[in-house]
Design a protein that fits this description.
The chain is mainly α. Helices cover 68% and strands 0% of the residues.
């Protein structure tokens, strides 16, 4: 049983090593490198789009909270000022 176990273990390790070697050889070919660089380029492009979308969303959120015109609006400020209805008894008589 011991010899059969080691034979199977050696055959499995050899097959695993062969598959890994083929993958490395494919990666190091000019086509493989071009595919990797193209994938990296697409990934960076998508990441940049996500960052820009997040920045725009956060800018619109902050502009809304501060009462400024939202991104893309023609007005410089929103016409209604801040709500001072909660300023009870502060000399605004």
């Amino acid at each position: 049983m011991s010899r059969a176990f080691w034979f199977v273990a050696g055959a499995g390790a050899g097959a695993y090593g062969l598959v890994k070697a083929r993958r490395v050889a494919e990666i190091l070919t000019p086509e493989g490198l071009a595919d990797r660089l193209a994938g990296l380029s697409v990934g960076l492009h998508l990441f940049g789009e996500e960052v820009r979308a997040g920045m725009d969303e956060k800018e619109n959120d902050l502009r809304g909270r501060l009462g400024l015109a939202l991104h893309g609006d023609q007005q410089k400020t929103i016409t209604s000022g801040p709500d001072h209805s909660s300023d009870h008894g502060k000399g605004n008589d």
